[in-house]
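Milestone M4 deliverable, item 7.
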Amino acid sequence: MSASIANSPTTPEQSAPVDARKLYRKITWRLIPYIFTLYILAYLDRVNVGFAAVEFKRDLHLTDSIFGLGGGIFFLGQFCFDLPSNLLLSKVGPRIWIARIMITWGIIATCMSLVKGAHSFLILRFLLGVSEAGFFPGMILYLTYWFPSRERANAVAKFMTATSIAGVVGGVFSHFLLKLDGVAGYHGWQWLFFMEGIPTFVMGISVLWVLKDHPDDAGWLTDPEKKWLDTELERDRQEGGASEHHHLLDAFKTPMVWVLAVIFALDQIGVYTVNIWMPDLLNGLVPHHGASASSFVALLSTLPYVAAAIVTVIVGWNSDRTFERRWHIAGCFLTSAAGFAWAAYAHSLATMMFAMTLGAIGYWSMMGPFWALPTRVLGGQAAAGGVAIITMIGSLGAFAGPSLTGKMKDLTHNFSAGLLVVGGLAVVGAGLCALLSASSRAAEPSNRTS
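Output delivered:
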């Protein structure tokens, strides 16, 4: 088999060869931009509270501990329902289940504009997590229906840049929406939650018509392309062991799943510390305060996300190119650790910006190589369960990061201790990468498509 051409079954109507490189490019352009947009909306609705932090805390008289708890309690909702939601997705099909998730969380996201105090804030953030549960692991599982493991880090990296682009989009939108403070008698943060929740609801409806459950349902693929892709995906499952590890219980019995779950939790501690607290960190170093300062910080906060988006794609591409996963992940953790240690001692806006950019680059760019691992060794219900287990444990990290940082801020009256703890945990994450087995390498088949 050549480097980019694979012959399909030689029936008369299917004698033309399939260009693998062209096929994966076609799939990428058909799928990634759309699910990329969906994930931007998902990510924006979960982290926009960070952009609204200063005015939101002031208007509702919230302490840093309560705000950090509200930022993190979203992930307790996810933790409780990620696994059953992902199993239902594998049964019902991605199209219907993803649409259900998005429509539900779009409604809850707009209701965030009705928050009156600490209790309603905590309740709605928890319900937002419940309603969104299963979306991210469902998207990771969905990509396994279209890309073999040797192509997956690059595909996941492109998809995962949505999390950093959401920071850019959120920063720009928040900059303008927070300026609506007082318009029609509403606070700027109320406009922000309302206007950023509606698109999610609308796009959720569109999923019913746009998303295809499997390659066999895609009218834009030819029959030879569908059959060739089915063969490639099955071969990949057999090479990685996914065909043998097919039942839900296999996910619980696979040690690598639990190692990956802890690694992901340590990553999420840092990711959501950046998401929830970075605007507040920057705001504390801005010489003037008020609504204009908040909108300026929201815009300034986009820069680390831009850098993270670029490096995420580069790391994912290089991981596929070199067939290597675990040391890419370890290097990303160490980069974040350096950024957070620097941020702990930053006393100027420029220094804090550079430090948080370094932290964001490390935490985000590991996602491509990371998510190529569990779906290589697990298949069927085990893949759905394994991804859900990893995201569930990750949700605990995402809960712990913002909550711990807020609590330590209230205790010490500065962010330094919390930042150093998060940075130290990133070093632990780098060390855990040594426990990943040799299966953490990507496949190196003769029909590699570069």
